[in-house]
Amino acid sequence: MSFMQDKVFVDTNILVYAHDRDADAKHEIARRVVVQLWEQRTGAVSIQVLQEFYINITRKIAAPLSPPAARELIQTYFAWYIAAIHPQFIIRASEISERNKMSFWDALIVVAAQEANADKILTEDLNSGQTIEGVLIVNPFVTNQLV
């Protein structure tokens, strides 16, 4: 077991798959990743991720959760590091977006990961293996690598 001190930032899609039992293989991989982050106490998310998670888990999956069940689940993630979005993050995200030719929303995830002192972002939305602004991008579905 690794005892790293840096946080591992988890993007919305990983959390959704971890709780979407209809996601088959992605569900199993994402669930194992989330369990490992709980065990290591290294999970980090942002307000943006929790907002997106709520919408996706209550509206966009095959068997959506009820709003009360989703709220209860989100509250469990309050034990993780939660990066708040500060006004200056908007400027930093816009600069990262421009510099790296990526969406503003993905750049905001990078800024939140930096704020959380995360050494990696787990996501399927960016190029696995790429380092953006000092943060490694890992797609656990491609690398079949847990944390």
What does this entry look like structurally?
The chain has helices at residues 12-19, 24-40, 47-60, 67-76, 87-100, 104-115, 140-143, and strands at residues 7-10, 43-46, 81-83, 118-122, 131-132, 135-138. With 147 residues, the chain is of the alpha/beta class. The chain has one domain (7-142): Rossmann fold (3-Layer(aba) Sandwich), CATH 3.40.50.1010. It has a 6-stranded mixed β-sheet. α1 packs across α2. It is globular. The protein starts with 6 loop residues before the first strand and ends with a helix. The mean pLDDT is 93.
Short summary of the structure?
The protein has 147 residues and is α/β, with parallel strands linked by helices. The protein has helices spanning 12-19, 24-40, 47-60, 67-76, 87-100, 104-115, 140-143; strands spanning 7-10, 43-46, 81-83, 118-122, 131-132, 135-138.
Task: Write the topology of this structure.
Blueprint: E1 7-10, H1 12-19, H2 24-40, E2 43-46, H3 47-60, H4 67-76, E3 81-83, H5 87-100, H6 104-115, E4 118-122, E5 131-132, E6 135-138, H7 140-143
Parallel strand pairs: 1-2, 1-4, 2-3, 4-6
Antiparallel strand pairs: 5-6
Key features?
single chain, 147 residues, alpha/beta, Rossmann fold, six-stranded mixed sheet
CATH architecture: 3-Layer(aba) Sandwich
Structurally, the number of domains stands at 1
Main structural class: alpha/beta
CATH topology: Rossmann fold
Number of strands: 6
Please outline the major beta sheet: 6 strands, mixed
Please write the CATH class name.
Alpha Beta
Overall mean pLDDT: 93
Helix content: 40-55%
The low-confidence runs, each spanning 5 or more residues with pLDDT under 50, are none
Listing every helix as H and every strand as E from the N terminus to the C terminus, the arrangement reads EHHEHHEHHEEEH
Q: Please state roughly what percent of the residues sit in beta strands, choosing from under 5%, 5-15%, 15-25%, 25-35%, 35-45% or over 45%.
A: 5-15%
Report the span from N to C terminus: 10 Å
Shape: globular
Question: Strands of the biggest beta sheet: in what spatial order?
Answer: 3-2-1-4-6-5
Query: How many helices does DSSP assign?
Result: 7
- Calculate Rg over CA atoms: 15 Å
In CATH, the homologous superfamily goes by the name 5'-nuclease
